[in-house]
Design goal:
The chain contains 16 helices and 8 strands. The protein is globular. By secondary structure, it is an alpha/beta fold. It starts with a helix and ends with a helix. The strands form 2 sheets. A 5-stranded mixed beta sheet has the order 5-6-1-7-8. Strands 3-2-4 form a 3-stranded mixed beta sheet. It binds a DNA duplex through helix 3, helix 7 and helix 13.
DNA sequence: GCGGATCAC
DNA sequence: TATGGTGATCCGC
């Protein structure tokens, strides 16, 4: 069909240009994700763009992107001002001091496991109906997908994607409505197993847990690799679910590591300063928890693409100069590969600090807005009881 | 103290 | 046809 395609694209009506907007439309659906190595990203990008470009949602995304662009330009202006006034040297000095202080807090004495269930919701449904495992399937509906199995990911279908767009990418996609009772049941089965390796393990959502296995390893006289394999086998044997495990000296690094050999794999980062710094030297900043799409763009604008760049002699001062104290501290820590390695803060998860209910609804053109508000308030009232 | 922005899941 | 919901934190007013 190639000649036909060529004829079609050259036979366009005069003055009509093919819409190339998709090339610059960086939706969240095209970045690298586990199971999506073989996806034709340009094709996905194009399909998402074609199905998005005229929607209110798209215009809102554009508004947000433009605002981020202005923020980045403002930071770059401040950088140029500092450079032209030769003020960076002072920041370089205070940054060097901060980095030294942070380095002194490095703790290599723990072994942390981050256990991350593979495509958790989708895998739960596959357990209930094994025929689902062989076909592309997503949890959710035409409105929104919360996760997709690996069959579906081959087509570019992924979490947080609207189902109607996923259907364009994969017309045979099967949907499973969410079943939180099922996920909670399976999650507690998994947690019962993990508690055998660290009774104080830290659950992060239904499908992620952090385990401090330092003492467990000593008691068993085992290597981290062997224990990770043992836990994954144990979970699979007793629940039928696979997981991936990241192993490192702190929770931040362990979390990054659990993603590296997903699904059904593990990654061990050796417990030495050299190994950690070598790791951050090739680690894209976007992999660091807390650095999202916007911060990645800002850092990229400053020429900072790898975590180690954040603490380099030439740019740590820039980070300190341009970001707030909290933000720069977090960035420098990330660059050094520092993270929490002690027992989880007692009062950190002490209690919920807020409660909210929100609903998306179609435009009401002023009519029925108060009724809608009352309805949502009633749901909030329920949630508070 | 509040609302907007950002981020994670 | 059509793009979720909850909670947390930070920051600038």
């Amino acid at each position: 069909g190639e000649p036909d395609m060529a004829a079609e694209s050259s036979g366009r009506v005069d003055g009509e240009k093919e819409d190339e907007g998709w090339r610059s439309y960086e939706s969240v659906f095209t970045n690298q994700k586990a199971g999506m190595d073989d996806v034709d990203r340009d094709w996905v990008k194009k399909v998402v763009y074609e199905n998005s470009k005229n929607s209110p949602h798209f215009r809102n995304e554009q508004r947000k992107a433009e605002q981020a662009t202005r923020r980045i330009q403002e930071m770059l202006r401040r950088k140029e001002a500092l450079l032209s006034q030769n003020q960076l040297a002072g920041y370089d000095q205070s940054a060097a001091k901060l980095v030294a202080e942070l380095e002194a807090t490095r703790d290599l004495s723990h072994w942390w496991f981050h256990v991350d269930m593979d495509a958790f919701y989708a895998s739960c449904h596959e357990l209930m109906d094994p025929t689902l495992a062989g076909v592309p399937m997503a949890v959710g509906g035409v409105g929104m997908i919360s996760t997709a199995n690996y069959q579906a990911r081959k087509y570019g279908v992924r979490s947080a994607m609207p189902g109607f767009i996923a259907l364009k990418l994969c017309p045979d996609l099967k949907f499973c409505p969410s079943d939180f009772a099922l996920y909670k049941t399976k999650a507690s089965e998994v947690r019962a197993i993990l508690a055998q390796y660290d009774p104080n393990f830290l659950a992060a959502g239904l499908d992620e847990s952090y385990l401090d296995v330092t003492s467990c390893l000593e008691a068993r006289g085992e290597s981290p690799d062997a224990l990770a394999r043992c836990i994954r086998d144990h979970v699979r044997r007793e629940t039928g679910l696979t997981c991936s495990i990241g192993v490192a000296c702190n929770r931040m690094l362990a979390k990054i590591c659990s993603d590296l050999n997903k699904p059904n794999g593990e990654f061990v980062l050796q417990r030495s300063r050299e190994a950690v710094l070598a790791f951050t030297s090739s680690l894209p900043v976007r992999k660091v928890p807390g650095i999202g799409k916007v911060t990645e763009r800002i850092l990229s604008g400053l020429g900072l693409n790898l975590a180690r760049d954040l603490v380099s002699r030439s740019s740590a001062g820039l980070v300190v100069a341009l970001f707030s104290e909290k933000a720069s501290g977090a960035l420098l820590r990330a660059g050094l590969g520092l993270g929490r390695s002690g027992a989880p803060d007692e009062d950190a998860g002490a209690g919920r600090k807020g409660i909210s209910v929100e609903r998306t609804f179609r435009p009401l053109r002023g009519k029925g807005l108060e009724a809608k508000l009352a309805e949502i308030c009633a749901k909030l009232e329920d949630a508070m009881m």
